[in-house]
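Usage

Read records sequentially. Each one opens with the input sequence:
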Amino acid sequence: MINYTINNNQNYENILKHLNILYIEDETNIRNNISKTLEMFVSNVFSFENTENVDLIFKNKRIDIIITDINLPYKDGITFAQEIRKIDSNIPIILLTAYTDTKYLLKATKLKLIDYLTKPIDFKTLQKALHNCVKDIVENSRYIIEFPNNISYNVLNKELFDTKNQKIVSLSTKELSLLEYFIKHHNRVISHEEFKDNIWSDNIDYASDAALKNILTKLRKKIGKDSIKNISGVGFKIHTI
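and closes with the structure output:
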């Protein structure tokens, strides 16, 4: 696997290109401007004006970094970050505020934040904060998905690796697509039909039960048969360690 060193800006930028950001800001102009800036750095930016529907993103997408304003309708950013910390103690979080408030600062210190930024935010300040997020992600190995049987998957460079024998395990295009879809939706069961609609979206004529079973069997052999659970009559769910 690639050994990412984190001592220069180029490596930070390369890693950022593979990451997804959840960005929450209720002021439309600010949200649009910062979203455009973030899109220069990362793979995807999912922007919302409040936290009301962000649970749908967590169910359907891999989120690597969270950036949220503090003063939000529906639920403030501090409360949202506190809820996130109950389910994920490591995901990098950056809080934004229009002014420095000691009350917020005291609460924020308990949230293991990457940064606490005062708006307006300039390009270099935002870039530095994102680089700090990358450093945290790398140091916590959040880009590595571990499976039983000494198999791991590097999300950043899309490599399956046999850690026992120290070798890369090759994946076909469909096997990679299936694995990526499993990882993106790791917290729920995925139906046969959903797989066929998404994995074979480029050529639906080949989306048969036999074709899906064939790809699942091949992928199971590579990541371990117990890494893909068959939920009878419902679908499949991935199992990691």
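Summary fields computed downstream for this record:
- The two ends are 19 Å apart (CA to CA).
- The first strand starts at residue 20 and ends at 24.
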